[in-house]
Amino acid sequence: MKRMFYTIVAAGLCAAPLQAQNGWTPPPADLIARATRILQEVPVIDGHNDIPSKLLEFAAGDPDKADLSQPQPKLHTDFARMRAGHIGAQFWSAYVENDSIPVHAALRQGLREVDMAIRFTRRFPDVLELARTAADIERIQKSGRIASLIGLEGGHGIDNSFAALRMYYELGVRYMTLTHNTTLSWADAALDLPRHSGLTEFGEDVVREMNRLGMFVDLSHVATEVMVDAIRVSEAPVIFSHSSARALVNHPRNVPDRVLSMLPRNGGVVMVTFVPSFDAKGSMEWQARLDSVTDKLHADLDNDAEISKKVEEWTRANPAPVATVATVADHIDHVRKVAGIDHIGIGSDFDGIDFGPTGLEDVSKMPVLFAELLRRGYTDADLKKIAGENVLRAMKQMEATAARLQKTRKPIVRG
Q1: Alpha-carbon torsion 396, 401, 407, 411, what sign?
Q2: At 308, which helix (H) or strand (E)?
Q3: Which is the most buried residue in 47, 90, 238, 359, by most CB within 10 A?
Q4: DSSP state of 78
Q5: For position 126, what pLDDT does the model report?
Q6: Which residue in 374, 333, 373, 366 sits closest to 347, CA to CA?
Q7: Residues known to be catalytic
Q8: What are the residues facing 147 on neighbouring strands?
């Protein structure tokens, strides 16, 4: 399960009123109304939502069994709430589980997830349409529908095959996260032991072939040295589909300042995420304390039920740091400070997390975040860039790079 990597225990986090949680209170109604008007002009392009995995896991691969045209209170996403949140384009994550690697099932699982995203999109033609280009996104939004895009989450999904990478592109995949949480034979992952000090020669060729195809290189989940290598090699803007700022929360999944400072030259975009453990200050320290307590309990006790009971008691007495709309906005502030306003987007990770930050509980709450930014002095033009203009600009640059490279560079045939 993907969400096991976002470890913050939920017990007791939502019991206190908003005022008591990090001192954050919702923006006033006039700012929410202003943010809503802005998002009506430039809807949100969200970099990461895990509905395909949810449909495969809980609906047996049948979109009718979790019909998003109807309210879905057990999910973060349904079409009514997407409309309320002014989602104009959504990258659906085709997540490839790390456990698929040792059993040689990654390619099959990646195709299964992409197939689910495509079938799900086609199931609701009045609401969704598959987008392959930036122009498609703009056209679909003007039609009043939501542009569906696909991101392959985990480079192991290509099974070391450039032919597979090209076929994913033909199916509509427009970004690939180079790793998930497992280091590959060609790239180090953020949450695994490094083996290559970055990208291998094969990994650099993966980046080059993605540039030639017109597929975003997504650097969420990769080790810092892979970020640096990929930006050095890439001739097109990169993205971080769902990451925040490491200077605020020292989580390996977040982007360090040395990498943020490289984005203006590259043109890339950090799509700031809503994962609570990536956003709430003190999360890593709290997790270390919990791990220490758990390790000691396992050393002292051999009763799993008793260990679980004592862990629950500890978490009730020591609640996890709380992520709110304000903490997400803090990460946006930091990315703006280091990389600039032109390099910020939104990558929620809804339905890939157990719960969102306070005030960002589901996709309908996007205007609240943008109202918080208005309260901090962001302009209407700033919000439009963050909502979607930055990603569209980067995508158009990426497509222009591909058009240029296809005139001079042949497909890589090895692998």
Answers
A1: negative
A2: helix 304-317
A3: 47
A4: -
A5: 97
A6: 366
A7: 48, 50, 153, 180, 221, 242, 349
A8: 89, 129
Candidates 116, 171, 144; CA nearest to 351 is 116
DSSP letter assigned to residue 28: P
Q: Is 128 left (phi over 0), alpha (psi -120 to 50) or beta?
A: beta
**Contact (Cβ atoms closer than 8 angstroms) between residue 224 and residue 179:** no
Contact status, residue 236 vs residue 401, Cβ threshold 8 Å: yes
Residue 253 is assigned to a structural domain of this protein: yes
Indicate the average pLDDT of the chain.
Answer: 93
Are the C-beta atoms of residues 188 and 145 closer than 8 Å to each other?
no
CATH of the domain at 344: 3.20.20.140
For the chain, what percent of residues have pLDDT higher than 70? 94
In a domain, 348, yes or no: yes
User: How far apart, in whole angstroms, are the C-alpha atoms of residue 224 and residue 247?
Assistant: 13
**Cβ-Cβ contacts under 8 Å for 410 (sequence gap 6 or more):** none
Interhelix angle for 390-405 vs 134-142, to 10°?
140
Examine residue 301 and state whether it is found in any structural domain, yes or no.
no
303 to 101, 133, 298, 300, 316: CA distances (angstroms): 32, 55, 8, 9, 20
Structural domains in the chain (count):
1
Strand intervals (E) in 50-177: 87-95, 128-130, 146-153, 173-177
Burial (0-12, 13-18, 19+ Cβ within 10 Å), 68: buried
Inside any domain, residue 296: no
- pLDDT value of residue 320: 87
Instruction: Look up the domain containing 70 and give its range.
Output: 27-282+321-405
> What is the rounded distance in angstroms from the CA atom of residue 35 to the CA atom of residue 325?
14
Q: Is the pTM of this model over 0.85?
A: yes
Q: In what helix (H) or strand (E) does residue 106 lie, and over which residues does it extend? A: helix 106-123
* Cβ pair 111, 119 in contact under 8 A: no
- In this prediction, residues 359-388 reach a mean pLDDT of 98
